[in-house]
Amino acid sequence: MNPAEARRREALLRDAGAGVAQERAALTERLAEMAEDRTRLVEASQNSNADDEHDPEGQTIAYERSQLAALTEAVSSHLAELDGAADRLAEGTYGDCEVCGEPIPVERLLVRPAARTCVTHAT
Ligand SMILES: [Zn+2]
User: Fold this and answer.
1) Could you tell me if residue 31 is inside a domain?
2) Most buried of 5, 17, 26, 88, CB within 10 angstroms?
3) For residue 78, how far is its CA from the centre of ligand 1 (angstroms)?
4) Alpha-carbon span 119 to 123, nearest angstrom
5) What is the pTM of this model?
6) Number of separate domains in the chain
C-alpha cells in the first residue's frame, strides 16, 4: 500500500463509524415507515372486499403488500450487514477481507461500506 492509499484508508476508517451509524439510523427510520405502510395496507384490505379476487382494489393492495414485503426484506438485510460492519469496527477488523485478511480497497469500501471481502473474494 502506497502512502497516499494508506492515508485515504486511515481517513476512511476514522469516518466509517459515523457513516455506518448514520446509515443504520436512516434504514431504521425507513423500516418504521414501512411498518406504518404495512399497517395502512392491512387496514385497507380489511375495508375492501378482499375475498373477491376480481376486485381490482383488492388486487392492487395485494400487489402493494408483496412489494412492501420484498422491500422490507431488502432493507432488513442491508441493516443486518451494517450491524456486522459496526461489530467489525468495534473489534478493529473492519476493512479487512474475511477470506484472505487483506485490506479491502478504499474504493470498494466507499461504494459498499458494509463489504466483508475484497473484490476477489466477493460472492
Ligand atoms: Zn480477499
Assistant:
1) yes
2) 88
3) 21
4) 9
5) 0.79
6) 1
Distance 19 CA to ligand 1 centre (A): 23
Range of the domain at 64: 3-111
pLDDT at 85: 95
CA 116 – ligand 1 centroid, Å: 9
Distance 15 CA to ligand 1 centre (A): 22
Mean pLDDT, contiguous 10-residue spans, the chain (123 residues): 90 91 95 96 80 75 93 96 95 96 93 93 89
10 Å CB burial of residue 78 (0-12, 13-18, 19+) is: middle
Note whether residue 119 is domain-resident: no
Domain at 90, CATH number: 1.20.120.910
Residue 121 CA to ligand 1 center (angstroms) comes to 5
- pLDDT value at residue 50: 54
Buried b (16+ CB within 10 A) or exposed e, 82-108: beebbebbeeeebbbbeeeeebbbbeb
Cα of 104 from ligand 1 centre, angstroms: 7
Cβ–Cβ < 8 Å for 110, 12: yes
Residue 116 has what pLDDT? Answer: 95
Is residue 101 included in any domain, yes or no? Answer: yes
